[in-house]
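Q: Could you fold this chain for me?
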Amino acid sequence: MTLFRMAVLAALVCTTSAEAADMAFFVKNLRKEAVAVELFSRDRETVWPGNGKVFLIDPNSQKSVPLSCNSGERICYGAWVDGNDRISAGVGPDNDQPCDNCCFICVEHTTETIDLVP
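A: Sure. Below is the predicted structure, expressed as C-alpha cells.
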C-alpha cells in the first residue's frame, strides 16, 4: 500500500460519517477475449454496476467506469472472460477469490487503473 493511500485511510478512519465520493476506474482489457467486470464493496453489500449487470469490455480495449462510493470504502474488482467464468482475475465473478493488489480505497476525484492481462 502506498504511503499516500495509508495516509488517506488513516485520515478517513478518524471520521465518523461516510461521505459520498465520485471516483473512476480505468479498465484496460489486454486480452484477446471480451471480459466482464464487476466492482464489489468490501464494506457494504454494494456491487457496481449492480442489478445482475456487468461492465463488458471488448478485447484489446479500455473503458472508464465512474462510480459513487463512500470515502474510505474498500472496492475490489472481479473480472472474467465473457462466457467462461473459470478464467478470472481479481476477486472473481462471485467476489470469493483471494487477490493481491485488486482492491482500492474510495477517494474523491481519483482514478484507479486496472490492467487485465492474458
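A (continued): The two ends are 24 Å apart (CA to CA).
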